[in-house]
Amino acid sequence: NISYHGSSQTNRGYGLLLQQGVKAQIIESLKLGIQLCSFRITQYDYRIYAYQNDVSQSLSIPVYHGSGYEVNLTLQKLIRRSKLEARYTLRNTEGKTIRQDLRIQFIQSF
To answer: For every residue of the chain, which 3-state class applies, written as one string?
Structure first.
């Protein structure tokens, strides 16, 4: 995904977001994914919202502003009639780690 939001000539701000993700099935019961994002937004008024991979039954559309990058790792492991999912996110904005997030979900089927 590439998103760009420009401004009029009176207020010279912009927002640019580059995002790419890859998912792979390593073995039959294991899926891994990585999503990389780089962003540069000059003013909060030009912030960008973008979809982010997450665990099942969950939705994540964070706001991006400032300048930095984000790494999003996902894992899905099938164990008999169960599923283990995890997501780890690290966001670095302007040289400082401002967000680390770990979600773990276990789903049991009966």
So the answer is: CEEEECCCCCCCCCEEEEEEEEEEEEECCEEEEEEEEEEEECCHHHCEECCECCCCCCCECCEECEEEEEEEEEEEEEECCEEEEEEEEEEEECCEEEEEEEEEEEEECC
